[in-house]
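User: Can you predict the 3D structure for this chain?
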Amino acid sequence: MTEFTVGDVIAERTLHLTRESLVRYAGASGDFNPIHYRDDVAAAVGLPGVLAHGMLTMGIASSVVLSALPAGTEVVDYGVRFTKPVVVDAEAGADVHIVAKVGVVEETAARIDLTVKAAETTVLVKAQLRVAL
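Assistant: Here is the predicted structure, written as structure tokens:
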């Protein structure tokens, strides 16, 4: 059993996304919306550029937490609110920085609070993952 103390950072990592990352995710998820790989389509609908899939951002954030915990750790609940998109530049890509901190420890579960940023902008809020104790 993992010991959790409120306020402890249990994981921190920066993951680099490229346009290739988006194409691979599209293939795995079946989400081929062209805003995730075509600049012209993204611009035509008023977006600041090609965007990472929201579920990709959510998934990589949770993977940072899970990779820091023992194998077999049970996720009881996971939720986020999307606030800003992750814009993935054709040349530079985008870095997504995740910090996972223990927010609450209860009798049967611990809540891990995630801070998720891209280009110093918070892209997910109320990002909380609960794990069984």
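The helical segments are 19-29, 39-44, 54-68. The chain is about 25% helix and 40% strand.
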